[in-house]
Each structure stands twice: as C-alpha cells, then as structure tokens.
Specification:
With about 70 residues, the chain is mainly beta. It is about 10% helix and about 55% strand. The longest helix is centred in the last third of the chain and has 8 residues.
Amino acid sequence: MYVDTAFQEGIINYDNKSLLKLELYSTLGEQISLNCKVKWLRVHEMVPAGLITRMGVEIIDPPANFISLFEKL
C-alpha cells in the first residue's frame, strides 16, 4: 500500500523493514488498525505542517474489516 504522511520534523525515524501500525477510518467511521512493514521510504518535502514522507508498506495479516472493504468493490 502507498502512504503519504505528514510528521513534525524529527518525529519519524523509519527505514526499510521497520514495523509500524496504521490507524485508518472507513467511510462509515469504523476504525481499522493495520500492522505494516515499511518496504520503501522517501522524504519528499518540508511544508508548514511538517515533513511529508512517502512510503510503501506491506500489510501484515490484514484484519477482516479491512479485507471486506475490497470484497464490496
């Protein structure tokens, strides 16, 4: 999965193969927690809101509520 993030400078210190947890909300407001492994990471640019970082992550053992989002497509 491709992810764009915005962090305040100095908060993020991930590299290839780091593990992280993403917290998402479906369009219905349901919280979805994803355990992920960073596959690639690029610091893109500084903006007033913080540091924009782009990364590709592998979702590890996705929960059923996440999988069901794609089954409905």
